[in-house]
Write a sequence for this structure.
């Protein structure tokens, strides 16, 4: 990792540390203070948006490991989130399990389902793998719709609230802190996972799977591990989504959400832990701003009324196109350039 001028590593622990300088510690503390004081001054609408952003970050973090680091493109990520949501819903509502016991089960079930649908990645890649993962979206959602005795089918499934001791997470205010804690844990786990031997193997497979196999990387093992960890994070996101919504329906997990998740990492930056965070926050803020502007225009003139629903998709497609043309490596790469210029100062040449 590049360090600011005058900062050197004197031992291995310093070289391996994620946070090195006093400025980095100050910025981290400032971000954490902003995150955990946000619901004290924000309106209920923005607290709801922040909860959805936190859950989305966890889900997209799994897609970043799968696609951004391992190079395995998936277009069925929403189905794995649905797997985690329905696993928690069935265990809590039908079997009476507490949330804290059902949560890891949701992650593992989604992970193992992801491994099953990741088996074609051993033989196919690129567009063919996209079609194989797209099949997961239709197969899993068809099972959920048809297995009405367990999942509730088209009528949905009611999920109990989360309790911790004698405390129940009833309001958005309390649920916000729960989601943010899990989002931070997911970010830390993903960051450290990419720095291990598994993460380096994923990068080697992404860059050139044939060369990585010649160097001794087992593609069977590491591709399936990528699907497991990517879908595990998706299952955790679904497990947090289900008790928050209280009622989960198959219509909540449609194909377009999987496209949005890929858009998040394209805008935020593939192959970077900061990518999902930047992408989700940027697209959500842009979507909210666009909705407010178009709604304001629609109330003033009936001509714009038809653009209210379509505006988010128009802006989303335009943003993806602009990023692919002008900044294909995403917002995270822009931030890295800013940090590099700071670290080289005052010796920029």
């Amino acid at each position: 990792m590049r360090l600011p001028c005058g900062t050197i590593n004197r031992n291995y622990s310093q070289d391996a540390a994620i946070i090195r300088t006093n400025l980095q510690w100050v910025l981290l503390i400032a971000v954490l203070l902003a995150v955990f004081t946000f619901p004290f001054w924000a309106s209920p609408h923005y607290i709801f948006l922040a909860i959805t952003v936190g859950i989305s970050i966890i889900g997209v973090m799994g897609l970043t490991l799968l696609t951004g680091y391992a190079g395995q493109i998936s277009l069925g990520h929403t189905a794995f989130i649905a797997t985690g949501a329905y696993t928690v819903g069935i265990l809590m509502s039908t079997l009476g399990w507490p949330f804290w016991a059902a949560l890891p089960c949701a992650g593992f079930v989604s992970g193992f389902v992801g491994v099953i649908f990741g088996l074609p990645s051993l033989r196919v890649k690129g567009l063919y793998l996209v079609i194989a993962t797209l099949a997961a979206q239709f197969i899993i959602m068809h099972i959920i719709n048809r297995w009405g005795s367990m999942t509730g089918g088209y009528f949905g499934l009611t999920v109990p609230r989360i309790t911790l001791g004698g405390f129940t997470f009833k309001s958005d205010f309390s649920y916000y802190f729960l989601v943010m804690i899990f989002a931070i844990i997911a970010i830390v786990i993903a960051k450290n996972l990419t720095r291990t031997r598994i993460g380096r193997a994923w990068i080697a497979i992404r860059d050139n799977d044939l060369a990585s196999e010649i160097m001794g990387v087992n593609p069977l093992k590491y591709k399936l591990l990528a699907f497991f960890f990517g879908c595990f994070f998706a299952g955790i996101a679904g497990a947090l989504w289900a008790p928050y919504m209280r009622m989960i329906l198959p219509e909540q997990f449609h194909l377009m959400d999987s496209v949005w998740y890929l858009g998040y990492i394209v805008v935020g930056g593939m192959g970077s832990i900061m990518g999902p965070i930047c992408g989700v926050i940027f697209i959500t803020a842009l979507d909210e701003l666009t909705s407010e502007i178009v709604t304001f225009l629609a109330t003033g003139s009936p001509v714009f009324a038809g653009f209210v629903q379509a505006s988010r998709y128009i802006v989303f497609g335009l943003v993806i196109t602009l990023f692919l043309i002008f900044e294909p490596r995403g917002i995270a790469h822009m931030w890295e350039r800013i940090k590099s210029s700071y670290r080289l100062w005052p010796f920029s040449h």
Summary: The two ends are 19 Å apart (CA to CA). The first strand starts at residue 157 and ends at 158. The longest helix spans residues 219-245.
